[in-house]
Fold this protein.
Amino acid sequence: MVFKNNKHVVNKLSQLIYVSHTQEDTTLEDILSILKISRYNNSRDNISGLLIYDKEIFLQALEGDRSAVERCYERIIRDARHGAPYIVWQGDLKKRLFPMWSMGYCTPSDLNDDDKKSLLALTNLIAKDVRSVGSDLLISVLVRVFFGGPKVKVICN
Ligand SMILES: Cc1cc2nc3c(=O)[nH]c(=O)nc-3n(C[C@H](O)[C@H](O)[C@H](O)COP(=O)(O)O)c2cc1C
């Protein structure tokens, strides 16, 4: 990241989307504490994104300077509050999908029917075998469908 006229200028805008398994005993307090540290760190690092939690899985989109996003993900994968993190999509972005959020949060019940179907399909797929041959492409298509429109409603605590 470089600074120009005292503003953050992102070198290479990049997006990383991963899914992971929640722990059996994940509580709302855990989620709130994850959101608190995420919003603090992400706004410091000029990262925006969204965290979706649906009892069994987390799905998180991180977007920002590529090296900042990668550093953030390195921290996240060491966190014992979830397991088996798996990158379903990583690539460059022309513009942010969640520019307003240092970390938005929503649950599937906040999504419309189309988005719910995509999330359900994604959850089933992950439950089957996320690493099976060919599933990568399918998952990335699903994720792109899922994040494709301006339909995702986000709740702010
Ligand atoms: C599902 C999940 C999502 C997280 N998302 C972020 C995030 O977007 N940004 C962040 O800084 N930390 C996030 N965290 C918290 C990090 O894992 C870590 O606890 C935090 O960044 C502090 O790291 P540190 O103790 O190495 O400083 C997340 C944790 C979990 C379990």
The chain has a mean pLDDT of 75. The pocket of flavin mononucleotide is lined by residues 34, 37-38, 41-42, 51, 58, 60, 62, 72, 75-76, 79, 81-82, 103 (CB under 6 Å). Residues 1 and 10 are 5 Å apart (CA to CA). The two ends are 29 Å apart (CA to CA).
